[in-house]
Amino acid sequence: MYRIYLVEDDVIIARSIKKHLENWEYEVQCTKDFSAVTKEFAEFAPQLVLMDIGLPFYNGYYWCSEIRKISKVPIIFLSSAADNMNIVMAVNMGADDFIAKPFDLSVLTVKVQAMLRRTYDFTETGEMLTYHGVMLQVAEAVLTYQDKKVELTRNELRILKTLMENKEKVVSRDTLMTKLWESDCFVDENTLSVNVNRLRRKLADAGLEDFILTKKGIGYRLK
């Protein structure tokens, strides 16, 4: 089931779109706090965003550019301001498509289906894991925290991805080593320690001090 994040302040329109897309078996979340769109986006981790232009606090262009700092997820603008200037502005800010209001819900559905098909059917899905404000874009091997980006090596990505998939659970050293080398054969544990310590330093530089905790004699977990 694809997740769609709907940024629309007209309650009637939002409910109508949500109900219609849910009938097509999409999971739809409407914005609750229009001053915290990026936060809600990160927590929901959608595969597509539907964005109005005229919004409380900041307009859709602003939020589109903010989302583009952390994700390549497709964004479709929905707006009655469908003149050439606004369409060009939307595309320049990172939008993938523009649908003029008023629109037929069947047309919206076809556009959504086409965008999801083009984006995900023939490419690796843009998996994004989130935990306490930390966003991990798996395909790009990039961690984002408070506008800071951290480029990860393959081993660092595998370690962090495994820990974030298990949230606050302790992950054993054996499990992490298996993930690192995709093998059950013996590997020197010092190598794992070196990778974890290097990852910790990168996280600390991004403001995530002690993000990875050690459970002595067992393994690691997230703070």
From TrEMBL:
Annotated Response regulatory domain residues: 3-116
Aminoacyl-tRNA synthetase is among the record's keywords: no
Superkingdom, natural source: Bacteria
Listed Gene3D superfamilies: 3.40.50.2300, Winged helix-like DNA-binding domain superfamily/Winged helix DNA-binding domain
Entry keyword Transcription: yes
InterPro entries: CheY-like_superfamily (IPR011006), OmpR/PhoB-type_DNA-bd (IPR001867), Sig_transdc_resp-reg_C-effctor (IPR016032), Sig_transdc_resp-reg_receiver (IPR001789), WalR-like (IPR039420), WH-like_DNA-bd_sf (IPR036388)
DNA-binding region: 126-223
Residues bearing the modification 4-aspartylphosphate: D52
TM spans (from-to): none
Domain OmpR/PhoB-type: residue ranges: 126-223
Pfam families on file: Response_reg, Trans_reg_C
Signal peptide: none
Keywords carried by this UniProt record: DNA-binding, Phosphoprotein, Transcription, Transcription regulation
Purpose: May play the central regulatory role in sporulation. It may be an element of the effector pathway responsible for the activation of sporulation genes in response to nutritional stress. Spo0A may act in concert with spo0H (a sigma factor) to control the expression of some genes that are critical to the sporulation process.
Name the record gives this protein: Stage 0 sporulation protein A homolog
